[in-house]
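Need Carboxypeptidase's 3D structure for a figure. Predict it.
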Amino acid sequence: MGKASLLLLSLVVPFVLLLLPVSRSATVVTHLPGFHDRLPFHLETGYVSVDEETGAELFYYFVESERSPDTDPVILWMTGGPFCSGMIFFEVGPMKFVLAPYNGSLPQLAYNPYSWSKTASIILLDSPVGTGFSYARDVEGYHDIGDFSFSMHVLTFLNKWFTDHPHYQSNPFFVGGSSYAGKMSPIIAQHISQEIELGKQPRINLKGYVVGNPVTGSDYDDNFRVPYAHGVGIISDQLYEAAIRNCKGSYIRPTDKMCARVLNTFQNLVSEIDLPQILGVNCIRGMLTHKFLSEEYTQLSDPSPEQPTLDCFAYRYYLCNIWANDDSTREALGVKRRRP
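Structure prediction for Carboxypeptidase:
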């Protein structure tokens, strides 16, 4: 999933959290609303406290390997954005939505036979704080969220999670993430590596990190759009050669009129496609992100996103909005209670 798509995946739902004292809790989920059978894999969800001062807690989904959980790798997978929920429906998870016209009932689910859980156990994490079902009791917990606090919260989460799940400590472990989380993966891996060198416990069996379409830096990423568009056939050889000739490798800040003219033509062409899904239909994506918990304790208005058409990739996010905000879903997942 590309950076642009991940920035558009947020659902803001109005509610006030009950200030519950529990720091760590877990729920074994055997059935999910919208899926009519028992889940064909082991699913655990829960909260882990990562900041006592603000009461910040990260929500996770743990899908045990369907092959050999005692020896298969454990992978932490974070979705980019930032502020995009991991859930179990997108990218690497074991479930998917049935893409059918919405009829007012709860969206239906189907098993994803290509899930990474076929060969590995997966921890899908709602991070940073304020993403998905992760939250803080003190509103200050949502302020000053940056790369450092993000990485340290994840490190705290992992240390507590592996302490609570000691039988996975010897399994090979990988930190993984897409888009913005792809940038965070090596940072978190470095923190773990430093703790291993210091002999801290629990000793996580870190083997490496995985990145999917990672963010590197806005100038580098944005500057590469022109050669990428040429490489996949979005723009012609003639336009690409004109860009090289007039912009001299700098496609972000044109220094003369000819370069600006070439880049304007480029922008007009790429505006006709869906950049995150270049083979898909270019349609209204709606301002949807996987941000299910309000960042404020005050009542917020419902964003009421426009419904995409069935052939839009964003239709999945529309269904996710409906499914995740249903009370039966929250109860099944063990999401903490809320007041209207």
